[in-house]
Amino acid sequence: MSDFALWPVLAGSAACFAVGALWYGVIFAKPWQRAAGLSNTQLRSGNMGVIFALTFAFEMLIAMVLWHLLVRTDPPAFVVMMMAVGFAVGVMIPAIGINYLHQRKPLALFLIDAGHFLTGMAAMGGVFVWFRG
């Protein structure tokens, strides 16, 4: 197994991206918008192509780092899931928590975004388990 494998990284990124599309587009669209304090006009004002492309690029970077760790350590499937979820719980969620505390963001926004990271990383981990299986 190579330190970098395009298909697992793309698939893991796509899984995380799909979770985000469901999370922010369907499940928590309105609660997230309210918690973020964004109007419909503000949401339409951004360049969605750039936003989505950069989101996917960042998710690919996360996937590449996680895939590299998996290749180097060759853990069993349950540990792959622990590592993926552990990334979210131990690194990503605390990082956004720190930022949100200093930015005085509401708890609701933190919980919605933290849930996205947790679920997205679990999806990425599941894809990686499937690719390594």
From TrEMBL:
The chain crosses the membrane at residues 6-29, 50-71, 77-101, 108-131. InterPro entries: DUF1761. The keyword Chaperone does not apply. Keywords: Membrane, Transmembrane, Transmembrane helix. This is DUF1761 family protein. It comes from Erythrobacter ramosus.
